[in-house]
Amino acid sequence: MVLKKYELEATLHAEKREISNGRLKDENPLDVSKGFQEMCGACRRGDLKRCQELITDGVNINARDEYDYSPLILASLCGHYEVVQLLLESGALCERDTFQGERCLYNALNDRIRNLLLKYDYSKSTDPLQPLASHITSLLIRTHPKTSDITLSTSGGALNLHKFILSARSPYFRNKLASTPESNGWKLSSAIPPLAFDIVIRYLYLGEIPLDLSGICESDEEEKTLVAGIDKLSKQLGLETLLDNILGGGDRRLARQRRTEEVTRGRDQLEEWFREHVLKHKVVTNTRNADDVRWDRDNAIFADVLLRADADVDTDEEELDGNIESVGPEQKVRTTDGPLNGIPVGPVRDPSPPPEHHSYPRTSTLFPVHRAMLLRSDFFSAMFSSTFREAQDTSHLQIIPIDCSPEVLEIVLYFIYTEKAEFPLDLAIDVLFAADQLFLEKLKVKAATVISTLGNGTMTVVESDNPRGMSNETEPEIDIYDVIRAGWLTRVHRLEEFAARYLAYRLEYYIDEEEFAELIRESAARIKARQETDSIELLDDIRYYLSERFRLRFEDSGIDEMIDATAGDESDLVAAQNPDFKLPDDEGVDLKGPDDTSQEPKKPDLTSEGANAFDFSGVLRTLDGQVTGDEFSTDAQNYRILLGKIDTLLERLKLDA
Amino acid sequence: MLTGRGRGKIRAPRRGLSTPGDNVDFDSMWAVLASSLREIHTKNASKLSFEELYRNAYKLVLKKKGEALYEKVKQFEHDWLSTEVRGRIRSSLTGGLLTGAAGSISGMTANERRVAGEKFMKALKSAWEDHNLCMNMTTDVLMYMDRVYCTDNRRPSIFAASMALFRDCVLRSPLVAEDPTTVAMILNSVILDQVRMEREGDIIDKNLIRSCAYMLEGLYETEEEEESTKLYLTSFEPDFLDESRVFYKAEGASHLRSSDAGTYCRHTRKRISEEQDRCRSTLSPLTAPKITSVVEDELIKRNIREVIDMEGSGVEHMLDNDRIGELELVYELNARVDPKKEELRRALQKRVVELGSDVNNAAINSSQAPPPQPPEVNGETRGKGDAKPPAERPVNQQTAAAIKWVDDVLQLKDKYDNIWIRAFGSDQGLQTALTRSFSDFINAFPRSSEYISLFLDENLKKGLKGKTENEVDAVLEKAITLLRYIQDKDMFERYYKKHLCRRLLMGKSVSGDVERQMISRMKMEVGNHFTQKLEGMFKDMTVSEDLTSSFKDKIAKLGDPDQKRIELAINVLTSTMWPLEAMAPSTSGEEGRARCIFPQAVERVKQSFEKFYMEKHNGRVLTWQANMGTADVRATFPKVPGKESSKERRHELNVSTYAMVILLLFNDLPPGESYTFEDVQGRTNIPTNELIRNLQSLAVAPKTRILIKEPMSKDIKPTDQFYFNENFHSKFLKIKVGVVSSGNKVEGTEERKETEKKNNDSRGGTIEAAIVRTMKQRKELSHQQLITEVITQLASRFVPDVNMVKKRIESLIEREYLERVEDAERPAYRYLA
């Protein structure tokens, strides 16, 4: 049901009043900061990369500018499909029956964007933090594998809890458990009804708490004792917001808002705890000795497993085995005699890298972590549920090697603990693979997003002008071959698309490379492995994006005609038909054909050479070096040349397509 | 941060995916995995590292070696199952089982067979459990392969594949070369053998069989694992059902020969519950409905008819002997195979109709038997019935028969209602059947309407005296139940009206309340039109009371101080409502219409009332029904001359109006004189038969012999002389002189014909009304439709005879209410306005 205009205005007015009364949080607060302005600009231009960077920097994508525009409205109004998609995936709201939401839908430039917006309608999309919250809540009832390390006995039964969650969420437990990390039980006074404990514990575990206590209590009196019990407990445990949440009343939107705030707070607490404990206590050690690290079960981090990641072997580092300071295993054993409340840094190495760091060939990093959280990954879930070695109880913490670099493992863990995933482009492919191996779909998507946005699929206006001073560094940020193969291997279709587009827009650089031919052959093989069809997916995609790249100019006049006609006639024709046709500022201003450079050695040399070929000579040349009359004919010819090259390539590879 | 690092280009992933052609050492990685798998199968997994195994499998899949890995694992499982597992199972086989599966199990005692079977099943069970455990672990390790390789290539998961391998390599492969016997076949025969033992009463290891059944349930024919292709369903269940069918067929036949119906039913029920238990505890719940239906087919469907009809113990026997439990059982069993319970219903209806006919015949016999007492005495008895307890004297033979009939029917009904509730769970269909049977035999009895009305009459007159409200209710309810069965309700109405009329006029009704209650019940049951006239009768009675008292007031106001004033109590009856002819059934023609000559005094009162009534209601005609009235006469008898002690005696005589007229005649007669019969008739103009009856009661009945007849005999002849009996003697002050009335006895054949004729006449009217009503509405209707319509309309009152309807139509055509449609295909009629 779409609301009538006056109804919409009425709700908007009511909402405004609520907001000014401070009851509701404004979902689209006014933001005049520089960062947000830049965000809006990027959305107008369709600058995908900049958008991603700004989002990562923490710009509020649901804010509005002084004209009441939100980034999502701008992007959909200007017709930037990819930007809209990015914004929605990053949590931009488009809820029907709200002023901003309807406005966004109404403003969408085309149906494709409109449908995209509808697909992400708020009611269907979930809170991005919901998976984390529900995982933590599910720990309360999950009995296998056993992850709980503290038992809370109430008159109503026993609850199996996790020290690290309690410490992260409640100041009371943090202090208490810090002083006695080995305690494994907590008795509660019987004066407080068990139901109150249930509610408090659910709250601590980010579960949904009942909105209306009267629904679960049989009498008013019971309700009163319950509220008193919760009040007492929350004071004791240092939870200021719990009672407010319960007593806040049943308005749906308010409740949702409170819940979102609460989950966010919980996430932040977990994050803080993760930084303060897990990350701070990670241990870097010599790979050879890594497995000898002994870590007590009772530790102040409450970790119950150690994950090991080995650092990359830097080829430029010399292997100087002789220089390794050999540290006896007995020194690495952390003696249990020591004070338990101390930070149980197991290996005796100073965390700060010693000066002779370079002389170590390989280091390993150990992360003290919690199985309860690792269970979010099916990989760990299977591991800890099985009867293999990892699932067995040992006197010291098990050390489980994970096949990735410490940086990547840290990102993975960060994601598992906090749902946050921020990492630079250069780690993205590694993260992608690690996520694939560990079955973390969301992280995979995240990695793919990072690659396809920061990797700069479309060369936008801004970028080719002067994207933040990068233009003089012509070295591409990514190895597109790696990207596409990673996409194939990890089955992320988005990366295949991205790569095809990337290649199409730079085809002249790659078309003659031997590796490109190899890639085409692989793509053909992939498809044939599945079923006997004659098309090669990658080439189809490239052709599609190629036509998109040139279509801007050929629209309305028919490409074939364009290509067959003579250059001079054509340009007149086009100019006559589209007198105010905007000239795209693609890189095609002047392209010197790769003919000149095809003899050059492979990448990365090619790119730098290619860059040299880009000097602006003021003469319009096509890719095969012919001088042409104007830009239109240049493009037409270039398009034809590229298509021709593809055909030649196919012939050479003896593939039909 | 990002821009700063942006320079560094994405590095090629560190470990080994640079090029696909790059050779992973498949063989060495597989070697690691294979040895680990072996460890898993030999239960040494605790030393293995999940991470390492997973990583190896992951890499192989990433390097496009998924296919090879998948095949290798399958091969490994295949080898393992075919050698290790099959070997173990073969060694668990005791010789006899192998041959036993192929042919008949011979040369082994049941116990030996059981032990051997259990050993075999134990081996199979543990093999299956081990396999499951191992495959769960393997699946964990190969998770990446399952999710990536198998999904992409649409291969069944390794778990499903290995289950299929278990099926093929263990269950479906021959144990010995050249012998087609497979493990599955042996398993089937072992389980069936054990089940047979249990059916015969032995104890078997249910859990063991259950776990084997679990195994079969966990395996599928195809790798798609559709529910319907479970091995249990495809390979075991059909065998089991066939075997059971054979078993129960034989058992059913032998039990039918050797045991009675009750035992048979009990046994069947036991078998059904046994089989259901077996499915729960030994086999699979999936089979429960199927095996139940097998038992039902073989033990119930096939034999239920014979069981129900079983001589001396079948349903008839159970019904007659109130074997509620057994009937319940029969009902339950029959309901299992036939929702309509056809067989039981048939037997039940047959029995009800049989018993009903017995009741009917008994009633006919007793009513036709020669009455043990002469009718005169009967009449007297009836007349005095009110004063004496009815039980002391035999009531009228016919009436007794009627009441007995009703009682018998009610008893039958009670009995079957009881059975219906207790044994048949108040089953709707059976109730309908019972109702139909009752209705059949009740309507088959021509006098049912009359008898029921009589029964009510009897009860309303005296039967209900001193009974509590609940008891009264119960009697009325019973009567209504019977009424429900009656098709010709108009007949009943006619009789009821007649009986009611007499009760009202003679004031014989026990309680007006109960009468009204009865009317309202009938109203609810049959409808408004049915009780309209009956209610009218009640209304007349109350109106008449008012009339009488206001007339009395008027006389009093006239201030006529006539000492000999005659008090008049009058009932003014609407002639259409009351069955007046019923009061004088044998009165016919003009004779009945002839006016009785009243004595002077009475005539005066009569005229004064007529005047009074005409003042109130102009234009009405009052017809005096002397035959229905009564009068209180104060009579003085002179001293008996012979006796000193005697004195003048005064008695109050309660007599009929006619008797009063006769007695007053003797006032004017000097003592010793007499009138002949003809004299009396001439002076009073009383119809002959009435006169005879009245004279009989005055001169013949010994206790009320106020007149003396000459010659003394029981019959009245026209030549008889009548004297006033001055020596009349009675110890009572008030004397009621009963009239030999037609009483409320059962009608004679003549009367019955009369009644039927009248009934038919009134039916004719009703039918005509229905026809006209229908045609007025439809204007034109085919013959068939019209008949149907009329019959439906009248169904609630009676079942019209089609011929009668036809005649009525003819007559309506003659009278130009209808006309035939000339050129219609089927005969049709048109309404003429």
Automatic annotation (TrEMBL), chain A:
Residues 317-362, 578-611 are annotated as: Disordered. ANK repeats lie at residues 67-92. GO terms for cellular component: cytoplasm; ubiquitin ligase complex. Residues 582-606 have a biased composition (Basic and acidic residues). Residues 148-213, 367-425 form the BTB domain. SMART domains: ANK (SM00248), BTB (SM00225). InterPro entries: ABTB1, Ankyrin_rpt, Ankyrin_rpt-contain_sf, BTB/POZ_dom, SKP1/BTB/POZ_sf. Keywords: ANK repeat, Repeat. It holds the Pfam family BTB. PANTHER family: ANKYRIN REPEAT AND BTB/POZ DOMAIN-CONTAINING PROTEIN 1, ANKYRIN REPEAT AND BTB_POZ DOMAIN-CONTAINING PROTEIN 1. This is BTB domain-containing protein. It comes from Xylona heveae (strain CBS 132557 / TC161).
From TrEMBL, chain B:
Residues 379-391, 747-761 have a biased composition (Basic and acidic residues). SMART domains: CULLIN, Cullin_Nedd8. Residues 447-699 form the Cullin family profile domain. Residues 362-398, 744-764 are annotated as: Disordered. It holds the Pfam family Cullin_Nedd8. The keyword Coiled coil does not apply. It comes from the Eukaryota. One of its GO terms (biological process) is ubiquitin-dependent protein catabolic process. GO terms for molecular function: ligase activity; ubiquitin protein ligase binding. Keywords: Isopeptide bond, Ligase, Ubl conjugation. Belongs to the cullin family. This is SCF ubiquitin ligase subunit CulC.
